[in-house]
Amino acid sequence: MCRDEHNTESRTGSCDHPRVPEEHDDAELVRRIAQDDKEALRTLYERYGTIVFGMTYRLLGDRQFAEECTQDVFVAVWRNAASYASERGRVTSWLLTIARNRAVDLGRRRSARPADPYAEVWQSDESPDSADLAVAADHSRRVAAALAELPAPQREALTLAYFEELSHDEISVRLGLPLGTVKGRIRLALDRMRGLAPKYALDTEREL
Amino acid sequence: MTDIDRRERAASAALGALTPDEAARLDEELIRDPALADEVEAYRAAVATLEGGVARERPSPELFDRVLAQIDIEDAAVARPAPRVQRVAARRPRRLFPAFAGLAAAVAAIALVLAVFDENGLDGPTSRAAIQGTPDFAGVQGEARLYSPEQEDGVLALDLSDVPSPGPDEHYEIWVLRESAGDRMEAVGTFTPVTPEVELEVRLPGAGDYKAVDISIEPNAGPAEHSGTSLAGGSFEAA
After folding, report:
1. CB contact under 8 A, A162 and B105
2. Using CB atoms, which residue from B48, B54, B94 is nearest to A51?
3. Angle A179-196/B34-53 helices, nearest 10 degrees?
4. What 3-state class would DSSP assign to B129?
5. Residues of chain A positioned with their CB less than 8 A from the CB of B38
């Protein structure tokens, strides 16, 4: 019996909706990407593209640059999939580190070039100073990593609520799940985020 | 109401997912129920942490298609020799520079050429510079041409030969020097060649009397300033 469906205290995500792939096959996806499987790349993007974009958007403060950066990240995944070593960490850690580095690189270029031909473009955006960017990027990477670590059903529900700002009813329709299950998954996701805060050095009180 | 129900409502409130009626009812309850208020605040802290690291924004629906397109363009650029550069059409700068930023990582210069230029053109060059490699890269030769540098949408075209591959953590960056900028070099783009023969065009930083062009070797994670190490360069003369 699926405990999650009954809104118990389950944190295991053991009753994953069948449409949601399990985390442990991320490495298998990357292995397939290394063999030029673009469908595998699409699946990886569908799982984490929104998180990568949200992270780079937070750092760069501009939709277009965040999309450029996200695009670069997934092209880099395509080019470098063969170099991923599962024994060195999760796929999400690898992916988000790429995203962090790309965002920092782009952010530094934006903020450190007053003589840039398109300086007015950079200056019109609210981006962090170069000196602070690495710190902000590390924080964003940790937040994104915690989000990526949620069990897939919880992450899916929270992603729809958070990024798409869908109501519970809309999520219920979108996923074909009972309303109570949706509410339960979102609550469990936030519980899990709170639980992951120490692991990722996230001070959930600081933001208040 | 069960404890689970209370917590689900608190989580929903923190995410802003309650309907207006539900939110109004909850507000009334929070006055009477400090424990529930604490629960809501705890969830709000979690959401605030999330918002502090990951923006509440979604990418465009077509972004993954652009990822695939970029892969295809790069693959095509590697698979075939660089075509002759077509003449240049004006473009909004906002698209141009991020493309260069991407190039700095790994993209071949020709990918940009394919992406940016079209068949509509400019007149002939007003200035030319013979490009010569620095002593450590004496084999590098070529030509730089300026098109409409007196206009805001002027273009620098570069044809280079015998360009070595940069180091694994390096790329090349193009700089120009113009009268109005004093001694300050202005960066106009970066590239990583896929063949020793390089043809590319970049937009100039603005109208001006351009004196020289320089191509530097830059570390991928280095500062935005000129590294001080040049691959090649040249001085402009009227065409």
Report:
1. no
2. B54
3. 70
4. strand
5. none
**3-state SS assignment for residue A35:** coil
Which residues make Cβ contacts (< 8 Å) with residue B197, sequence separation at least 6?
Answer: B81, B82, B160, B161, B163
CB contact under 8 A, B52 and A76: no
ipTM: 0.77
Residues B23-77: tens digit of each pLDDT: 899 889 989 999 999 999 999 988 988 888 899 899 999 999 999 998 888 777 6
Partners of A149 on chain B (C-beta within 8 Å) are none
Q: What percent of chain B has pLDDT over 90?
A: 19
Residue of B nearest to A183 (CA): B8
Helix ranges, chain A (H):
26-34, 38-60, 63-80, 91-111, 119-123, 130-149, 152-162, 168-175, 179-196
Query: Do B187 and B162 touch, CB atoms closer than 8 A?
Result: no
Mean pLDDT of all residues in A47-74: 93
B179-192 tens-digit pLDDT:
877 767 888 888 88
pLDDT of A27 strictly over 50: yes
Cβ contact B46–A197 (<8 Å): yes
B50 contacts A147? CB cut-off 8 A:
yes
Distance separating alpha carbons of residues A181 and A163, to the nearest angstrom: 19
Handedness of CA A205, B2, B5, B10 (dihedral sign): negative
